[in-house]
């Protein structure tokens, strides 16, 4: 009979064993360090403009008067847009959109200037392409403002000429005006909006996969029994010892992106960094726990990893940061709570973006911790899988 | 002589094709990536975005004017499809609390001088909207609703004023009218925008995973960790590549028909394209992806590692394609990197052909790009397969010579010691 070692020394043996395994296989380096670091650098670098500037648009000027030329110049001077080409007809401009040369265009009809003078109320049109929804929506904003200004410009000049005050002119032309306050992200910065969730999302994906891999490969290589016996035949101890080094590495990665986003790139962090670091830590624990659950439910490495990639990829959509969860079908909204990224996203909005008191977000921290229950509730099944499951390729 | 060579070449390709097909359909793991994921994933993913637009976003209102005009404004905002007025709060702190509790996603504040300003026409009436920026669609919904209502009321106010004393100055409120036309994806649907790109990516990534899994399996089963097991028909690298490539290509023709034609039809996504043009475009896309995958598959050492290696790349590949963040905003370095992947050309070409009704000559850049990738990745596949075969032969030779040495040694020993 082998004498049982104390839990502490078993834990240390397990940690050392796992560290050796992590160093001996390049896949661990790839999945735990290379991929996260690459993504942390990639996304902010890809969207470093924040808002895309100089979106190419076209102009169809059939009038070719001093008025129409002035409209064209004003449009070109707008911050987001840049007129790259004049087209002779609407159909030519439409073709240019299909070739991806422009994302929209403005159409100034023939006799525009004459009709204005004759008070016949001519109509100008702007076209945007929403198959590319981001540039399409941004153009909409600029072109709408431009059209408003253009429409009112003639009247404004008339009234100024009669000696009306600026307030009077504005109140006459536009009695009600909207002032918008985009809280937390007044620049409508696209990178702030996406990167804050894409980075933890990718980290979460890699945590799912590396957790499943680390356990599944023991089953595959027939080392699971040995691993379990080092852990005094306790699944909890074996898992804790094995995944502890992972937690450290992943938290290091988490801290790196937090420091990069909030410390170096100065993305909004209205709550201070501590609530986000805590959220990151809980998110990592939740993802690891759910990873254990995955390989428990599907003890074959291939199926476990497929589960992990499915869950990890769906996270990006179902967390609701691109397409809001409240717009999704009700059952899918409910399923969303089974994704750690959903809770992380809600914490991020409440804490980092809006800086609300912690009391409004605490429940999401608890939800993240509840994920740890998954492997506890299913540890009997995992133990059986570790002892009896045979790897089938 | 030449004819016989060509004949046996074809037979070889066919033989390899048959072997590969058998391997694919006998392996549950491959069936998962080649059949089940392409079948199920598009449905799952599209269902998430299928509601297309955000409707009736809950907002709070703080009405300090409490006038007929402010009530009209609130009623009209509530009537828009974009937002729904959840509550009329007493003051800003109360409304802010609703926002913190995630009961509303925006606050519309109407000032006390709202009605008087409109009546007196000396100052503008300013409506302030405060928006939760957790999603850009919140911003869009609240802005669209308020802008539309304000423009509509402005027009009505001006018409009413016309009949009063200021008639002279109001001869025409808008000397120029304007209209906005959404060409393509006219409802600004989220699924219509994102799903076509995702569908292409699903084909691209499952192909990459499946081919990677096949290569990893081969290595695992081989005695020397080789990717290519040697036998008669494996002598010709060309035959090997063409035979395998043909098998993947054929399976993916079926997948493509389902993923890119049936799924969009099922979910009513915009399909303005000419089927024949789209098919012509997809052939180089599939072939380029096949050879791209075959080249990368040499990196796969074990059966399952391909999942860890390749899955994460879906997210960077989607963003680098320029479908979300526009390609004009992508730094030149990343833009050139994006040209390495068939998904970039595939996404941009397919979206424009299918969602925007472009013709093949309008996606010339992507079409030629895919053919260049096809040639490039064919050559790289040839090189890496050549190398793998060479390594295989080396292992085999080494193995045989070792066996021979052992036999000779044994012979010598036995020769010395007569029985």
From TrEMBL, chain A:
Gene3D superfamilies reported for this sequence: abc type-2 transporter like domain (3.40.1710.10)
Compartment(s): Cell membrane
One of the record's GO cellular component terms: plasma membrane
Primary localization: membrane
ABC-2 type transporter transmembrane domain ranges (all copies): 29-377
Protein name, entry field: ABC-2 type transport system permease protein
GO molecular function, one term: ABC-type transporter activity
Pfam annotation, one family: ABC2_membrane_3
Ranges annotated as spanning the membrane: 27-47, 190-216, 237-260, 272-298, 310-339, 359-377
InterPro entries per UniProt: ABC-2_transporter_component (IPR051449), ABC2_TM (IPR013525)
Keywords (A to Z) from UniProt: Cell membrane, Membrane, Transmembrane, Transmembrane helix
Membrane topology: Multi-pass membrane protein
Species this chain originates from: Balneicella halophila
TrEMBL record, chain B:
Transmembrane portions of the chain: 30-48, 193-215, 245-267, 279-300, 307-325, 365-385
UniProt keywords, alphabetically: Cell membrane, Membrane, Transmembrane, Transmembrane helix
InterPro entries given in the database record: ABC-2_transporter_component (IPR051449), ABC2_TM (IPR013525)
Gene Ontology terms: cellular component: plasma membrane
Sequence ranges assigned to domain ABC-2 type transporter transmembrane in this UniProt record: 31-382
Topology versus the membrane: Multi-pass membrane protein
The keyword Transmembrane is assigned to this record: yes
Entry-linked Gene3D superfamilies: abc type-2 transporter like domain
Presence of keyword Cell inner membrane: no
Main localisation: membrane
Localization: Cell membrane
Molecular-function annotations in GO: ABC-type transporter activity
Matches recorded under PANTHER family: ABC TRANSPORTER PERMEASE (PTHR30294:SF46), MEMBRANE COMPONENT OF ABC TRANSPORTER YHHJ-RELATED (PTHR30294)
Protein name in UniProt: ABC-2 type transport system permease protein
Protein species of origin: Balneicella halophila
């Amino acid at each position: 009979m082998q004498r049982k070692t104390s839990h502490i020394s078993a834990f240390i043996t397990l940690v050392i064993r796992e560290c050796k395994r992590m160093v001996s296989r390049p896949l661990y380096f790839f999945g735990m360090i290379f991929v996260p670091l690459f993504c942390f650098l990639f996304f902010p670098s890809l969207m470093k403009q924040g808002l895309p500037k100089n979106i190419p648009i076209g102009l169809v000027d059939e009038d070719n008067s001093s008025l129409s030329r002035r409209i064209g110049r004003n449009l070109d001077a707008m911050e987001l847009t840049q007129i790259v080409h004049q087209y002779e007809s609407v159909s030519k401009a439409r073709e240019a959109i299909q070739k991806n040369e422009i994302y929209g265009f403005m159409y100034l009809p023939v006799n525009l200037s004459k009709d204005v003078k004759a008070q016949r109320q001519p109509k100008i049109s702007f076209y945007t392409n929403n198959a590319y929804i981001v540039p399409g929506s941004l153009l909409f904003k600029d072109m709408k403002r431009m059209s408003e200004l253009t429409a009112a410009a003639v009247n404004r000049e008339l009234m100024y000429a009669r000696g009306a005050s600026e307030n009077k002119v504005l109140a006459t032309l536009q009695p009600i005006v909207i002032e918008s306050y985009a809280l937390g992200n007044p620049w409508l910065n696209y990178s702030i909006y996406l990167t804050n969730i894409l980075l933890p999302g990718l980290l979460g994906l890699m945590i799912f996969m590396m957790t499943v891999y680390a356990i599944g490969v023991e089953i595959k290589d027939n080392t699971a029994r040995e691993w379990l016996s080092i852990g005094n035949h306790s699944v909890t101890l074996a898992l804790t010892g094995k995944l502890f080094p992972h937690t450290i590495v992943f938290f290091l990665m988490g801290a790196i992106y937090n420091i990069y986003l909030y410390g170096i790139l100065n993305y909004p962090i209205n709550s201070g960094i501590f609530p986000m670091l805590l959220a990151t830590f809980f998110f990592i624990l939740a993802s690891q726990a759910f990873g254990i659950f995955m390989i428990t439910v599907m003890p074959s490495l291939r199926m476990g990893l497929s589960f992990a990639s499915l869950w990890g990829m769906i996270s990006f959509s179902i967390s609701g940061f691109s397409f809001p969860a409240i717009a999704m079908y009700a059952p899918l909204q409910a399923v969303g709570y089974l994704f750690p990224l959903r809770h992380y996203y809600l914490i991020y909005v409440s804490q980092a973006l809006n800086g609300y008191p912690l009391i409004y977000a605490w429940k999401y921290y608890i939800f993240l911790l509840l994920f740890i229950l998954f492997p506890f509730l299913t540890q009997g099944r995992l133990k059986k899988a570790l002892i009896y499951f045979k790897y089938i390729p | 002589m030449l004819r016989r060579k060509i004949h046996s070449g074809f037979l070889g390709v066919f033989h390899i094709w048959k072997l590969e097909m058998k391997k694919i359909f006998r392996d549950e793991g491959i069936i998962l990536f080649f059949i089940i994921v392409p079948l199920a994933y598009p449905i799952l993913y599209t269902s998430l975005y299928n509601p297309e637009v955000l409707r009736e976003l809950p907002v709070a209102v703080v009405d300090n004017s409490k006038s007929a005009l402010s009530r009209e404004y609130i009623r009209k905002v509530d009537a828009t499809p974009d937002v729904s007025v959840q509550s009329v709060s007493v003051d800003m702190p109360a409304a802010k609390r609703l926002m913190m509790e995630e009961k509303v996603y925006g606050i519309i504040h109407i000032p006390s001088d709202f009605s008087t300003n409109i009546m007196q026409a000396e100052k503008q009436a300013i409506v302030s909207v405060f928006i939760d920026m957790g999603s850009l669609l919140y911003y869009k919904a609240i802005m669209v609703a308020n802008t539309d209502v304000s423009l509509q009321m402005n027009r009505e106010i001006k018409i009413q004023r016309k009949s009063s004393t200021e008639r002279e100055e109001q001869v025409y409120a808008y000397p120029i009218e304007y209209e906005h036309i959404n060409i393509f994806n006219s409802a600004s649907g989220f699924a219509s925008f994102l799903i076509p790109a995702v569908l292409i990516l699903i084909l691209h990534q499952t192909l990459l995973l499946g081919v990677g899994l096949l290569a990893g399996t081969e290595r695992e089963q081989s005695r020397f960790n080789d990717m290519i097991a040697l036998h008669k028909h494996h002598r010709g690298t060309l035959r090997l590549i063409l035979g395998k490539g043909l098998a993947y290509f054929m399976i993916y023709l079926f997948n493509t028909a389902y993923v890119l034609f049936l799924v969009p039809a099922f979910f009513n996504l915009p399909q303005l394209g000419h089927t024949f043009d789209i098919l012509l475009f997809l052939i180089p896309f599939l072939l380029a992806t096949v050879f791209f995958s075959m080249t990368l598959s040499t990196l796969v050492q074990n059966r399952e590692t391909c999942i860890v290696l390749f899955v994460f790349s879906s997210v960077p590949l989607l963003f680098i394609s320029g479908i979300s963040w526009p390609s004009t905003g992508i730094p030149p370095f990343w833009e050139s990197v994006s040209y390495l992947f068939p998904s970039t050309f595939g996404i941009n070409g397919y979206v424009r052909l299918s969602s925007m009704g472009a013709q093949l000559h309008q996606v010339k850049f992507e079409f030629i790009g895919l053919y260049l990738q096809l040639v490039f990745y064919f050559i790289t596949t040839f090189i890496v397969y050549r190398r793998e075969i060479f390594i295989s032969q080396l292992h085999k030779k080494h193995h045989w010579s070792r066996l021979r040495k052992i036999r000779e040694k044994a012979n010598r020993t036995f020769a010395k010691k007569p029985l």
